[in-house]
């Protein structure tokens, strides 16, 4: 039997797995990634886009910690769009359509150049477990690999079943087998498994689309990159097509509804509300006469089109009719049918904030296996799991992210505290510190932390520190340059004539002040435009952030109150049974986390606090 | 599991009936061991209570069982209605304390469990406390309204409106690339108008409601020796104030609580207002401050020229009346003979009743402050929406929600997303 040893094993080569392996390696761990095929690393199995609202924020955070996703997205970007461009900077989300082949190539290239990382093509079929510690895995060929930590990122592969109409195919994704033995091992470990579903639309042959009959959505004239390190565009920019369903489409779906796997009763898993199938949309919103469809090119040299908006699990013949009922697609050929996929996920309330399983030391879970959806969410978890797996293997500090510092923290805390009832996707509205957790300042929030954790390389560190110095200097001069309201009004700024001296920073944050007029004043006139833009954003939110700082302080205080792992909620008087069950289920690590459990009351929190205090005496 | 608690629910002392309540998982088991019989849910049964150790008969009692969650505390509850004898209650409490896992409840613990099990919200608990403390019929009506969830329902409506508005605003942020109606922000702004008006109206009435809960202060104001203390004694039907013919006898502020046609009123007698020296001067100054702060002033005068020298302004609803009416034939009031007293009380209660009619559901300072915070945040939020700063508006709306939740419950982001998902078709 072959036997090899690493610091960290990552099982699964999706977005979570690649980011996990890279992060572990960057942190100094000798890391191996096990996947079926090297050439499918960096695959985008669903829509060919990276970023968006909430998601773009996560990509920037991954990038700030020197992860791969942002750089790969920029290397393959064929349509940049900044979502919410007309709204405040806190809720703007950078997004790009990516060329799938170029994205894969970019990820694979980053992996090849990571010295501490290697890839084994194979199938991990079992975990090695000794004394509740996970020590490695067994491959399908019987060989064993040992390590100080294992990151499991199996996506939809755990008992994955694809549904196309009445047909069911056990598979992890189109063309790849499901991992059944691993799922059985997970059963034996006693983790709580649930079932979710998601879906994907049919892929169309762009050469058979009548592009003259569909609308066009163009790329932004001024692209906003996903990575802080990107300085110029890599690819030609293309447009997406826009068309829509119509009365014929809806009638067709209505007539064939019982043939859909979703409505035929074959599927038990819960699907995401924000990414419904076209069947779902037509049944739930019967009053809508039409639903928009974006026709997204999958690559510059690839005729495949991803029709965003018609995810379906109808039988193939109905899918053909469905597609051809749509304007511009009358003669369209389907390259691959759409499908729904059901898969097992692990209740993330079994996890710690490091994404290590609570009961199995050395076993980390990341990505869709934790009940999330989306490349960005998966990659973000992969990064955190990878950092911590390295920490476990090399005995380094754990990397815990908090709600007031990052979307990564919001996501992981949501998952481990509340669990999921549908595939979890990031929204900016999930972040209570949204005005601080911006895409534009992800580097300021996280790069210093990444440097401390040892996962940020020299070039990013140097670039960041140069920017930080310039920004600090600009901020200092904006704060120290003050004027009276009379002086300000002479310069054309309409402020209250209240006699209070204001700094340029204060004035910059005023709703009815043109920032460009402030930029020309004093020392600021010598500052580079990107730094000035950053300063203006900070000034806009400064009054709110001051208010939120109090909330953040309270949060940190409650985060500092650790709840012992052995906390017995049975012994705790005066909790409702429902609340007690929830506490037992998520076993919050801190008082703050307990406070975020749904239905938690201040009285119950008080009980917990009192109990902890009395235990200490 | 939580432990099981018990406590007497009636005041100790001789009475026809006394009641002991048990709440918690062991409630039914304990009652069954006391009675030797099954306790049928929600049915009154006459049973002998026995000490299970000695077999001693304690008393014959009506036993009533309420299975959770449909009980006051939300847990299994049993009521033991015994005879109102101190000896019976003492023996019963001692027996209950002998059960393993049973303990005497801490003060307010039954209500706290009701709160924790969502049988009552915080405002309702306040209402319950008010009801127990109510002294007058108007206070009772107010407390019952609060206990019945009057404020909670109102706050629930506001909260619902703010939540819907927030959902609209969040939808324009998180789903801006989806097919949403164009006018969501306008709809959001319009939807806020109703709650904003209602909150302003409720806050206008809040001061009167708070007074009703805490009592109205009515100050007797006049020159020294105007007959204020005699009048106070008449109102109190006992000698509260030391009365003498010597001006300046009253230096401290004396209070008498009255139930005035259902309104709780505290009548304040204070030093006569004149220019004085030394310790009396301090008393006079304190009296002026207190008189100005009172809800209503009754000026006892010999003629209207007195008003000018008292140093306390006569405000809109204040009452001016001639004192010592036993000494003259003009209309007025006399503490000594009682002449005109009923008439004066009638006028006071008319003024105060009118104020209470305008009073709203908000009757605690805590409730008022939270509503004020919510209102201010909503007004700022509307301003942000007008400027198109949706992310700042969302921030203000969240703050408003948090303030409203402070009154009754909690919100979380899932609640916002639920509203979004049930309202719009999302997902391309």
TrEMBL record, chain A:
Subcellular compartments:
Cytoplasm
Q: Which UniProt keywords apply?
A: Cytoplasm, FAD, Flavoprotein, NAD, tRNA processing
Pfam families xrefs = GIDA, GIDA_C_1st, SAM_GIDA_C
Q: Name one GO cellular component term.
A: cytosol
Record-listed NAD(+) binding positions: 271-285
What does the record list as GO biological process? Answer: tRNA methylation; tRNA wobble uridine modification
Its principal location?
Answer: cytoplasm
What residues bind FAD, as annotated? 12-17
**InterPro entries, A to Z:** FAD/NAD-bd_sf, GIDA_C_N, MnmG, MnmG-rel, MnmG-rel_CS, MnmG_C, MnmG_C_subdom, MnmG_C_subdom_sf
Ranges where the tRNA uridine 5-carboxymethylaminomethyl modification enzyme C-terminal subdomain domain occurs: 539-610
Q: Which GO terms describe its molecular function?
A: flavin adenine dinucleotide binding
Cofactor requirement: FAD
Query: Which family is it part of?
Result: Belongs to the MnmG family.
Q: How does it assemble?
A: Homodimer. Heterotetramer of two MnmE and two MnmG subunits.
Q: What is this protein called?
A: tRNA uridine 5-carboxymethylaminomethyl modification enzyme MnmG
Give the source species.
Amaricoccus macauensis
Please name the gene that encodes this protein: mnmG
